[in-house]
Design goal:
This protein is of the alpha/beta class. Helix content is 30%, strand content 21%. It has one domain: Alpha-Beta Barrel (TIM Barrel), CATH 3.20.20.70. Helix 2 runs parallel beside helix 3, helix 3 runs parallel beside helix 4 and helix 4 crosses helix 5.
């Protein structure tokens, strides 16, 4: 039985990964999870300089999920390179660094800094507000997606994964734009913009007013978008959005995902990623599937 998958030339022992921002850079979860069991660890977003993030409160529970407005708080690329990469290198898992920025130059600076670091892939979070373009997220404009992908590819030595925003009219437009820009893979979906109001305090539950909705509530939307994107481009896709159990993971793989990322589930079940990896193997045994790649995108 073969659970290995190929992501733009990088071989993962299985398709199970962590979703950026829900697993830190692995160290805080390492006492609960055997990182060697994972196909890859995807780090929290890394910027060129430290980001303080948004004011609190910045997390709110919702039915079937949660809202977050953390604001990509991170210590910056130098601390990340000095502290987090050496920790992750202890394990037999692939390292995927999530990169964030406020301008094209910011992204490229981080990508260039990471070029000679021992990391396997870069995931570019283009759902950050583009400050120089009036606060519009890069990921909502196909022309911007293509342009920033092209620019990043000039500096990247590792394969580049473009992380797409679901807050668009047609996900296939941005998927095709990323492919045209030279992306090596896609990951989707990022969070869906939402809001919660505290009726007792009669104010917003989040200081930022809006936040990103994640968790089981978004899964049907995520599955649909992964299916659409996988049929629109020839790139491998990392599917995410509400994956809490192995059944969810298989659903994404059948829809066209080569790998999957587990996010919100990590907060209430730190063992989720290992349980999902085990569940995929048992599913393959039960259905006599020799290679996991045989069922990628099987549902058409």
């Amino acid at each position: 039985m073969n659970t290995t998958v190929n992501l733009a030339g990088i071989e993962l022992k299985n398709p199970v990964m962590t979703a950026s921002g829900t697993f830190g850079s692995g160290e805080e979860y390492s006492e609960f999870v055997d990182l060697n069991r994972l196909g890859a660890v995807v780090t929290k977003g890394v910027a060129n300089v430290p980001w303080p993030g948004n004011p609190t409160p910045r997390i709110a529970e919702t039915h079937g999920g949660m809202l977050n407005a953390i604001g990509l708080q991170n210590p910056g690329m130098e601390v990340f390179c000095d502290r987090d990469i050496p920790f992750l290198k202890q394990f037999r898992t692939k390292i995927i660094v999530n990169v964030c920025g406020k301008s094209t130059e910011d992204y490229c600076e981080v990508v260039e800094r990471l070029a000679d670091e021992p990391v396997d892939m870069l995931e570019i979070n283009i759902s950050c507000p583009n400050v120089k373009e009036g606060g519009i997220a890069f990921g909502q404009n196909p022309a911007s997606v293509e342009a920033i992908t092209k620019e990043i590819k000039k500096y990247a030595k590792q394969p580049v994964i473009m992380k797409l925003s679901p807050n668009v009219t047609n996900i296939t437009d941005t998927a095709k734009a990323a492919e045209a820009g030279g992306a090596d893979a896609l990951s989707l979906i990022n969070t869906i913009t939402g809001m919660k109001i505290d009726i007792h305090r009669q104010t917003f539950a989040l200081a930022n007013r809006t936040g990103g909705l994640s968790g089981p509530a978004v899964k049907p939307i995520a599955v649909r978008m992964v299916y659409q994107a996988s049929n629109a481009v020839k790139l491998p896709i990392i599917g995410m959005g509400g994956i809490a159990a192995w059944e969810d993971a298989i659903e994404f793989i059948l829809a066209g995902a080569t790998a999957i990322s587990v996010g919100t589930a990590n907060f209430y079940n730190p063992s989720a990623v290992e349980e999902i990896a085990d569940g995929i193997e048992k599913y393959m045994e039960k259905h006599h599937i020799e290679n996991i790649s045989d069922i990628i995108g099987k549902v058409q």
